[in-house]
Structures are given as C-alpha cells and as structure tokens.
Design brief:
The protein has about 80 residues and is α+β, with helices and mostly antiparallel strands. The chain contains 2 helices and 3 strands. It has helices spanning about 45-60, 65-75, and strands at about 10-15, 20-25, 30-35. A 3-stranded antiparallel beta sheet has the order 1-2-3, with no helix packed on it. β1 and β2 (about 20-25) form a beta hairpin. The longest helix is centred in the middle third of the chain and has 16 residues, at about 45-60. It starts with 10 loop residues before the first strand and ends in a 9-residue tail after the last helix.
Length: about 80
C-alpha cells in the first residue's frame, strides 16, 4: 500500500485517467473528489462488497423460472429430441 500525505486542495493522480482531490478535512473525516471518465465505475468499498455478495448469492441460487426460461431458449444438446 502506498501512503501519501496531502493537504486540502492537493491531488493524487492514478495513471492518466484518475485524479483524486482532497476537498475538505474535518475531525476524523476527509472529503475527496474523484475525477475520471464516465466509463470508470466508482463505488464505496462497503457498497462494492455488498454488490459482489449479491452477485455471488444470485449465481449460486436455484431459480425454477430461470431454469425454465433457459431451457426454452437454450435446449440442452445432450438431451435427445423425441
């Protein structure tokens, strides 16, 4: 992990496309601004963890409606047609 010291108004650049600016420093809290192109997703860590958990749970769950839809659209090549 790289640790840097910055003051209000100073920035950190990550590559050519991401710029992080310190906008405010309060007791125990730092407010930052992130400048990047619109196609770079930015998430707070706790939200990204929740999204990943929900995706894993959805991928692991069995859904009869999904199985029925998939069977109708993508027949199993290993099953013989009658």
């Amino acid at each position: 992990m790289l640790i840097l010291t910055r003051r209000k108004g100073q920035a950190i650049c990550i590559g050519d496309d991401i710029r992080i600016v310190i906008t405010r420093i309060d007791e125990g809290q730092v407010r930052i601004g992130i400048e990047t192109s619109n196609n770079v997703p930015i998430y707070r860590e706790e939200l990204l963890q929740e999204i990943r958990k929900n995706n894993r749970d959805a991928a692991a769950s069995e859904s009869p409606q999904l199985e029925q839809w998939l069977a109708g659209h993508f027949p199993n090549p290993n099953e013989e047609e009658e």
